[in-house]
Protein: Homoserine kinase
Amino acid sequence: MESIKVFAPATVANVACGFDIFGLAVDNPGDEVIVTKRQDDQIVIQQITGDDGKLTFDIQKNTVTVPILKYLSHLDIKHGFDIILNKKMPLGSGLGSSSASSVAGVFAVNQLLNKPLNTEELLPFAMEGERIACGSAHADNVAPALLGGFVIIRSYSPLDFFKINTPADLYVSIVHPDVEVNTKDARHILKNEVSMNKTISQMGNVAGMVAGLISENYDLIGRSMVDYIIEPIRSILIPQFFEVQMAAKENGALGCSISGAGPSIFAFSRGKETAEKVGLAMQKEFTKVNIQSNLFVSSINQSGPKILD
Amino acid sequence: MESIKVFAPATVANVACGFDIFGLAVDNPGDEVIVTKRQDDQIVIQQITGDDGKLTFDIQKNTVTVPILKYLSHLDIKHGFDIILNKKMPLGSGLGSSSASSVAGVFAVNQLLNKPLNTEELLPFAMEGERIACGSAHADNVAPALLGGFVIIRSYSPLDFFKINTPADLYVSIVHPDVEVNTKDARHILKNEVSMNKTISQMGNVAGMVAGLISENYDLIGRSMVDYIIEPIRSILIPQFFEVQMAAKENGALGCSISGAGPSIFAFSRGKETAEKVGLAMQKEFTKVNIQSNLFVSSINQSGPKILD
Structure:
């Protein structure tokens, strides 16, 4: 195989109560990366589309190529590749845009080299793309983009992560409003200390979310979708957040919170029909204050990156 | 039925990473309460054994009778009962001694009155015994003593709790050293603030513990038995804690931490034989510094209170 086109999915990190430890993949949107073998050992970004010219062609700084360079260096492989990145999702949206690119690129190269590593082993390299994009190597977007499904990062040191069951009828409505939130800012405004009471409440919801997902208890999932630590702070950066959240719940969502660092907002619903109704109701709240938005409705993506063509 | 004898089990609260939200019941030890109907409407504690004279006969302050009084008042029932409490477990041990008494008493009365409430509905009354014993109405001992099994308290306000699956071959070794720790002191030395990093690490372990128990993944259970928040502080009150913990792990325990507020220390093991070996190794560390201890080895009690005779 000389060339491969790979899709990697967008992801919702944090998932209400699980700051830095929960993430899930959706079917749509996502990024496409086309990787082609070269005769020399150069890594060259030939083309980037869909980014409005915002992304760099510098392979030491681009989120697609940094993981590939780390991967090749780790395996001591000298091989060149041409890269085309088709951004099919908004940048800085809280949907794991950089992770989708990182995962698609390193997954594609691993395929072209006949899989010297298995998929899970690609995680540390894909995380290096996250370090470039947001200043620290978080795994809560990268891991679900790579593995699909709902992923728990139990520990960062040593890295310990695993995928859990999710109910088949669980749907995600994601609304991405056309406002800008810088991921680095969204992290800097967080406090360094959490009250013991909030910590206990949050742990209760983390436990409830995990038990609810594995045992397919939709009510318990919904009751556990309360974030005492991050949402009260980050929601300040998102206009209409509480109106959108209320509209989601009033229209039948199990729960609703910020996707990653925002500004995207996600809701869980039981069934696609409810998820679509919820998404439209969320968009309507943004429209009221003249904010345009995109809506994505999806089940939980179980497969992670996908080879296209 | 005029009289009933009820056993309620000891419990391990917190279970390493789940401060105030996790608790589990064991088969042994536990408390026995004998309740007999009276002809009048008085509640009378006739006898208390096994407490070295430490417990009060004042029905407004005893952990058996306070829940019964709240229960009768709530249901507007005027009925008298004679109470005999046989303490079959150490007081102030971190094993939910007061909870076992509270649960046994209110469960017995509910039985004698032909079960006007179901078992779960008894929880708020049993929690009142905890308020008397340690100053606040925590549920992490009371709930597993009442329901059996491993219980998660997702939320205290509103009260939301549920039982999760545990692997059949999971055994608990509990070592109770003959040293005194006051539960109120053990709570007062805790800090009111937790660092964000510790909160995230703890949430990861909470998620890992729940997933590990439900999916019967013993390794994951073991890896999740790390407490970044409470154990580093409370362990100071327990002589030999780290030696005991290390001995447990070196002898095959999945993990080891403080039971409730201590001074009892518990370990999880896969299989009864390992749990017994682990327990003896833990005791040996106390013996080295001339501290006597009791050892209890048990599977997870799945049934809660039990009617005897």
